[in-house]
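pipeline: protein-struct stage 2 | run 1193 | TIGR04282 family arsenosugar biosynthesis glycosyltransferase
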Amino acid sequence: MPLPRVALFARFPEPGRAKTRLIPALGPDGAALLHRRLTERTLAVLRSSGLPFELRHTGAPAAEFCLWLGAAVPLAEQGDGDLGARMARATADAPAILVGADLPDLAPRHLEQARTALQSHPAVIGPAEDGGYWLIGLREPMPFLFEPMAWGTEVVFAETMARFAARGIVPAVLERLPDLDRPEDLGRWPELAGR
């Protein structure tokens, strides 16, 4: 199997449009700054992993991302549709591993674990503490995983596992990690929130 490509999903850090659930705690500028820090931190992890990667961007033209992150970061547009449609597009040329930018505890070892798991399993998933997942990796495209569901809610991991089970697919399951999405999450990583 070729090395999986890691796709990082990230929005441009525009105040008022980035990390909107954190605006009540940080204000529009603070939430955007936090998203900027998280994205840069996650890119550093991807570089350290040694795996090929790309940033799947939305919220601004590619040129704006190049000005922010440099021309050496491979870019691809997320495209239209809901999160599921955009994730399906990113896994159409699997093997692929998808992650978001809201994982302060993500380390290169997590990506290595996912890569290793794909050698013996058709898929790998990392459950998040909030009921979603922080990583999904596929050896081949599985568009059924990304058909409409209540994205961003506590049912996403369970529903995804049910979709695997309905097709007799047993994914490797990584450790549970927290993500940084809501004001109550900020206390875990005060250094990122600038507190």
